[in-house]
Amino acid sequence: MRCGDIWAAALKIYFNDAKSAWKGHKQADWESLDDLLGDQRLLANLCRPIDVDPQLVASAMRDELSLLEINSKANYKGWEVNI
Hints:
The protein is an all-alpha fold. 70% of the residues lie in helices and 0% in strands.
């Protein structure tokens, strides 16, 4: 495993933690979601070693969380959403 792979895996864990908190899981660690919706210092630290723009990553992550919410509401109402 290369160094970049390790940082990419850390970003995946960060997003999965944020997603769990977003979904309201009781065991979720809210630190990632708080960071993602706040100053994004943790995210910037994860992005720096692999030279990725944390603002672009944050935007993509927030978009994904929004889609999760849309799909969740659509499923609840029995709608089919093709995004």
